[in-house]
Amino acid sequence: MADLISKNDLQFKDYAWKAIPPDDARVTGKPDSTLLNRGEGYEVLAFLNRISKTKESALKGERLIKNNLPGDVRSHRNVHQWLVDNWSKHA
To answer: What pLDDT was estimated at residue 26?
Structure first.
């Protein structure tokens, strides 16, 4: 399945872009207990593409992660759950 968004679609440009292997758990998110480094572009991009159904939802997810996600929410599972729980509270 094709990715919904690419590096060029991301709204924030302050990510680090250190390449990591595509089978790395930080990219695949398996196990879900893997921590998401929200400053690493490849990790955020892969995470958003994995959990999103539309380009618009991926970009909203990026905004929520960058602007609203509490610092103590770090695992893929918890970040995803926080997005689900807080989706309608933010534009």
So the answer is: 66
3-state secondary structure of 28: helix
Structure tokens at 52: 């999103």
* pTM > 0.85: yes
Residue 67: pLDDT above 90?
Answer: yes
What span, in angstroms and rounded, lies between the C-alpha atoms of 27 and 46?
A: 6
Query: DSSP labels for 45-68?
Result: HHHHHHH-SSHHHHHHHHHHHHHT
CA angle 29, 80, 36 (to 5 degrees): 45
Q: How far is the C-alpha of 64 from the C-alpha of 58, rounded, in Å?
A: 10
C-alpha radius of gyration, the chain, whole number: 12
pLDDT greater than 90 at residue 21: no
